[in-house]
Design goal:
It is a single chain. The chain is an alpha+beta fold. The chain has a 4-stranded antiparallel beta sheet with strand order 1-2-4-3. Strand 1 and strand 2 form a beta hairpin.
């Protein structure tokens, strides 16, 4: 997992099952019944973070839309050796660069720094 100023990126190895197409990822239409990381899935189900009913993509998209956040990006290669999920920051949370405050020059003018 990598947290950057403008996004969160999650990398998973191995990638998705062969039944998940690159076109499906781009259009957010994914349906898969074969689980690649069963232990992780069981752990997340126990924490009530997943259901195990193949509803993850819809839940992610619905939550981001309700929040007004940008749509995520999903990436894999032809060999399905990795899977990357990118979640971009909501524009309302982007930092606005602020001007540096003016500093007093009183001591410098009196020659205190010799």
């Amino acid at each position: 997992m990598r947290v950057e100023n403008d996004k969160i990126e999650i990398v998973s190895f191995p990638g998705p099952d062969r039944s998940v197409t690159l076109e499906g990822l781009k259009s957010y239409h994914v349906s898969n019944r074969r689980y690649r990381n069963r232990r992780i899935g069981d752990f997340l189900k126990e924490l009530h973070l997943t259901e195990g009913r193949n509803t993850g993509f819809k839940k992610i998209l619905d939550a981001l839309e309700a929040n007004g956040s940008p749509k995520p990006e999903f990436e894999t290669d032809e060999a399905r050796s990795y899977f990357i999920s990118r979640f971009y920051i909501h524009e309302g949370f982007q930092e606005v660069p602020q001007k540096e405050p003016k500093r007093s020059r009183k001591g410098a003018e009196k020659g205190c720094w010799k």
